[in-house]
């Protein structure tokens, strides 16, 4: 029989793994005999059986060979001169050489056989022997060695497996334990000491109740006395376990199962017709204390605003839904209040988001102090808060709370070294009168809040049906505006700017009109604020630039003298990085000099983002486009910013012009603006001039260029072209 070692496989990165790392090793046999003829005959007999054969002619050579190499089997003659076969076996035993010996001897004396057996020879054959008898004996010896090697390997693996199992059990992050049928511990790993502080040895023989929280003992009785197996066994039951230090209460997710006969023998066969006996319970207890705490934190954060610690939108909707159900059942009312802070964006922009966040926290504290215990105050985003007031006895109760809100917000807020004043706009909707669904109530309260915003802020209002009608009209207007823009219903008109001394047209302001199919021609004030609100100002602005440049090209092609045209620009459009590219591309496409175009901005842009505004305006100015400040004196006038901006023209707002009512009057604001323009060497235009009295006063005060209904209303391009055509004389560009 062949004794072969199992082939060893190594990873093959070509995708195959079926090539042995080494070829199987044939059993090695050492043949020892001092008779050359017998030695040769023995080698010939064994050759061809898959053995690796080595032959030596005496005992001395055999000892030398055994000292050098390993042999699985030695076929040894006893009677050899010098060193006998017994001497060779003595050498093998003294050195502890792992090999078996079969003695082939011609000695018929019993002493020789006894000597061989005493030296632990595997077999003894007297010469002459039968060939099949020798081959069978050799095969049995090698098979025994193979089985012995396998047994040693199995025992070694079993010992390693047991050590590994003990290591894994004791190193497990879970408590692993077994209980007897009475619920006493028969085994528990050392994790119990690390987690709970109990000595594992002291727990052996103790009841499981020693470590279970008193309030959980009833549920624990089913967990720690589990007898079921398989899928029906207890899974994921959470219990609170005691600690040796009572301050460290922990929660465990305990996965218990009873061990059956095909497992680790917690059921024993009692020998009575194959019945089994329950011997105890095996369990694993995993510490999930931190997991539960983390889940609680995550759950809390999912339903609360992190900044103010108030309920967020999701939790508020849940509470509102429940409150509506209860209110409907009791046939009562509830109020929903929408609170939006006024001018909060200004705080964020001027002081930064950190102080803005601190302001929101202080606002939340003040608002919360004004509501009842059963009410809910939530922050649903930005500077928006909502309040739920269930069990509303009368609408005036909501008014009282709203007034309290306004009062507490009126007191100054201290943010580090900064003192701030802030107000709020509050809208109120009442269930079920103002809506019997969540979304309806929220929308209607929001609409009431925007009504307050539009009426000057810092107040509160209840929802009424007219707000919905106005909102509906606004939606329809937006739809019409989007449709009209695509249909080409927008048109540019031009209001001439006149030199009061000569009557000549020196420029024009481009204004947008909407040719509405039902409502007629609408001025910009009736639709541009809506366009700004719904995000249409950017495409409107791009269209306006292209239209004005196209109209200027047409005037040039008609031979009209070039006049400067100003366009009103929204801050939203100016702050776009690609606006400069849009404007310059249009000027180049229609071959219009940049100096013929003037961009009008309001001074409010100074406080939005002055540095960015300065950067964009300087870029336009360097290209040749002129800059005008429109409505000067009506906003946040700042001479410091005026000096930094590349401004060419100031326009006196018509609100100041309207004040000029009689010839003997003194109008210091108008005079101040004129003086500023002179001091800064800026061009000056008065807009909204409607009477001869106003024109004379302005001219005497030093303002020559005017526009208004006294001279011309905004004209279509054809009418404006005709006006230029009939001009008797036109001053140079920039005269005055």
UniProtKB/TrEMBL annotation:
Presence of keyword Phosphoprotein: yes
Domain EAL: 474-728
GO MF annotation terms: catalytic activity
Cross-referenced PROSITE patterns: EAL, GGDEF, PAS, RESPONSE_REGULATORY
InterPro entries, sorted: Biofilm_reg_signaling, CheY-like_superfamily, EAL_dom, EAL_sf, GGDEF_dom, Nucleotide_cyclase, PAS, PAS-like_dom_sf
Domain Response regulatory: 28-142
Location of the GGDEF domain: 332-465
Residue numbers carrying 4-aspartylphosphate: 77
Signal sequence coordinates: none
Source organism superkingdom: Bacteria
Example GO BP: regulation of DNA-templated transcription
Keywords: Phosphoprotein
Domain PAS span(s) in chain numbering: 161-231
Protein's name according to its UniProt entry: EAL domain-containing protein
Species assigned in the record: Noviherbaspirillum saxi
Lineage of origin: Bacteria, Pseudomonadati, Pseudomonadota, Betaproteobacteria, Burkholderiales
